[in-house]
Amino acid sequence: MNIKKIISLMLCAGxxxxxxxxxxxxxxxxxxxxxxxxTGPAYWFETTETSDKYSDDEGHLLASYDYQIIVMKxxxxxxxxxxxxxxxxxxxxxxxxxxxxxxxxxxxQWASFDERLSSSLGEGDYYYTDELTAEGTQAGDIYSxxxxxxxxxxxxxxxxxxxSRTFDLSRGEYIDPLEVADxxxxxxxxxxxxxxxxxxxxxxxxxxxxxDGYEST
Length: 217
Fold this sequence. Notes:
Helix content is 36%, strand content 29%. The protein is α+β, with helices and mostly antiparallel strands and 217 residues long. Strands 1-2-3-4-5-6 form a six-stranded mixed sheet.
């Protein structure tokens, strides 16, 4: 074998060993980023209930109340602005609850003086009651809580009223519903027309129960 072939073989061998050596070198580890922690909402709304009932010495039900309000709950990561907003929102809901409790806590005493209730003990279908249900609806930054108050405290029939509280999440405070309108008077007139139209299409028997002059009311 001549010198040129020997040198060629040595060069080939060197190149092969170099390639093998490079292949065995560990590639640099890629930097792995830890997964981002999922963050939930800073606040949310929940319905809570407060209820109680009153019975006589023999266990007959005299009266009961059941009140719902909606409360704003906050997450651990909530900032001071959200905490302040929740405090303000919940204070308004607590005012509604306390107002209802002024009635609810008197129901048992009022019922105890009702002779008709005393004469029907055991039937289980006649007792005083006061109920408040709450339903929340959000549209953009406006959160509205609609309340339905049903009560029976003797008399020929129960009573039912509706009212609401409107909260502006961007301002963190309760507002008058007219504040959401660019033209408050046009808004008021439009809503009035809609309500009157709905009333006039009610069943005649129901419509006959409306007071005279309800249109102006």
